[in-house]
Amino acid sequence: MVGPSRPQFVLFGSSIVQLSYSHGGWGTILSDIYSRKADIVLRGYYGWNSRRALQVLHKVFPKDAAAQPTLVIVYFGGNDSMGPHSSGLGPHVPLPEYIENMRKILVHLQSLSETMRILVLSCPPVNEEKVKGNTSGIFSELVRTNELCQSYSEACIKLCKELDVKVIDLFNALQKRDDWMNACFTDGIHLASEGSKIVVKEILKVLKEAEWEPCLHWKSMPTEFAEDSPYDLVAADGKTTLNPSEWTFYREVQWD
């Protein structure tokens, strides 16, 4: 570990999480926004479903850890919602089991610390036409439909409300953009930079509006080593220095 100690935000999920550092992804954006506020830790696993998440849950989030995360952002559901394969193999998880798996994941996280916060991302939509067009000879047919995505998203949201866990409705959030099918995905499933910007906007909205103490919105969190210094850049007057600790002008988006 390096110091000083910072709040830790853990991203836990399947490929939507693992690839959040690719294509201008939402993990990359959060790491920039919180670059002097918190450490963003990636625990993303391409192709995983809620069953596999349960298998490693206590390894990723052990109860006897020296310190628990400040925030955990959880996403599973896209792979679970895939249509079942005739062989019984593959990532599909029936909806009732998915709900119970997510319940176990969230209850475990809630048990780790009274101060740890949890935020869940529900299953996003897909571009069905593009998914069908991307079928490779390596895979059997990928059955991804928005009807399935919506049912898993709605079930996830309902569960989160029952457990009093914050949740973002990604299924509807992405579709608020008129050209979402083409703009939001790289391959019809995984997020392009425009889709990731929507995810970040929704995450920051929740963090800003949540009545959590302390607040985890980036503007409310202290900036590390933010004191003025004579070693900062010299201002135009030649007598004072400019503290760059809070500068954000370099960002493509000026996040609220």
Automatic annotation (TrEMBL):
CDD domains: Isoamyl_acetate_hydrolase_like. One of its GO terms (molecular function) is hydrolase activity. Gene3D superfamilies: SGNH hydrolase. Residues 11-197 form the SGNH hydrolase-type esterase domain. Pfam families: Lipase_GDSL_2. InterPro entries: Iah1-like, SGNH_hydro, SGNH_hydro_sf. Keywords: Hydrolase, Lipid degradation, Lipid metabolism. GO terms for biological process: lipid catabolic process. Belongs to the 'GDSL' lipolytic enzyme family. This is SGNH hydrolase-type esterase domain-containing protein. It comes from Arachis hypogaea (Peanut).
